[in-house]
Amino acid sequence: MSNRQVRSNLTLLAAAVSGLLPFGAAAQETPAVADGQIQEVLVTAQRRVAPESKTPVAMSVISGAQLAKAGLDRPSDLAARLPGVYLNGAADGLRITIRGVSNADATDKGEPSAAFMLDGVYVARPHSQNGDFLDVDRVEVLRGPQGTLYGRNTTAGVVNVISNAPGKTLEGAVGAEAGTHGAREVDGMLNVPVNDALALRAAVSVKRRDSAAAAKRR
Fold first, then answer.
1. Mind listing the pLDDT tens digit for each residue in 66-83?
2. Is the distance from CB of 163 to CB of 16 less than 8 angstroms?
3. What pLDDT is stored for residue 200 in this prediction?
4. Strand partners, 174
5. Helix, strand, or coil here: 6?
6. What residue ranges do the domains of the chain occupy?
């Protein structure tokens, strides 16, 4: 029997983060915009929802639609779009440099200078930070010390990836990709309103790729 090594990653971003939440807490409604006016971007840089234009923090915001349009699949792809920010997807994990401040020690004993967060929850290990974007609403990048609101490891700043909140509409989406060396990927999202005040949203991504030895035998 030939040995076939298949790498499989299963990511579930659902109930624990943005799933069973009341609309008032999770689904922030965007005010209607009159013709000819610019739609206001809402952010949570100060741990509360506020317009970006009224948030006194040096920051950049990239929406999920902008990520998809530009083909930005993971945090390390953001470097070319963010002035003063460098994200390197190294073999030992994501390395974040903001305004020239970083920490080259990506081992378990190292403490990063910039915090990486998913929906405001700190992701401690660099090798867990450079996963593919999945059902993302926006990415907020805060420059400069943020210890007052975000705690430790924020001397350089914060990178916060924010998932789409549950909505009032039943909807779903499925996508699939295939590539060389047996690479294949399937993504899916489902949003289910439970009642007038509650909804469930889940997103799943499955990836598989053949080993180099298996690819040569093809």
1. 999 999 999 999 988 888
2. no
3. 93
4. 188
5. strand
6. 1-21+165-218, 43-163
